[in-house]
Amino acid sequence: MRDYVIVSDATLDLPYSIIKEYGIKVIPMGIVIDDVAYNYHPDEIELTIDDFYKRLKEGANSHTTQITPILFMEYFKKLLNEGLDIIYIGFSSGLSGTYSAAKLIEKELTEEYPESKIYCIDSKCASIGEGLLVYHAALQKKKGLTIDELKTWVEENKYNSRHWFTVSDLFYLKRGGRVTSFEAVVGTALRIRPVLSTDEDGKLTVVSKIRGTKAEMEFLISKMMKEGIELSEQTIIIGHGDNLNQAKELESQIRSKNIVKDVIISQIGPIIGTHTGPGMLALVYMGKKGDL
User: Fold this and answer.
1) Does domain 4-158 have CATH number 1.10.287.370?
2) 0.70 exceeded by pTM
3) Keywords, A to Z (predicted)?
């Protein structure tokens, strides 16, 4: 039986230590900062997360680019030529055309390599919501699931990756068309932090608006308490965009309740950070979908 690898993209925002430990392959993604182009890799070889946020707070302009079909072709072919099958878990199709590009190459390479298996799956998730799904897929692979069994598992569980996040500066969301200019001005003046997630189509949606960091963390924890599945057996992830102090406070509050197995804090990388800005806070866990 051929071995296989789990592949994702640089929006997954998992700590590099986890990516390395489980042999997850991550395709880099492009970002342009003040007209200078970089490829963002999880090991931060070209661009560090800290430097990215420093430059963003200094007023730098940034925008991201999706993975091209050519890059998918080159990346997948290299793995196939090493005798590996591929299961790619990608950034939500509701937020990017990256997944569609991967599907085009899946079809082409399946014909060119008929003895190989190439499965591309739409995570319907963003950032560490996608990362959490990839992490759990890696855990399932470690248990011995075949590539076909894992494909079925991911499709059946992708909506169970529950992810909620807040932002402190609405102007980054305004630039991406997620809120109006009026909402950005009023929300920033009133210190309102929207809570966002993705819907069933994988599109970003504002599910609540909260004032104050205390209420924000209470909302995130209450969601986890209501939706979480077997939390005592789970390692949950807190993500932050240059917001470590608040992430540590959220971790402390969760640990004090003694309801989860472990907590990982992860930085939100430049690909997602371009659209959410400094101050983002996220909480992700496996659970059953409730009302948005």
Assistant:
1) no
2) yes
3) Lipid-binding
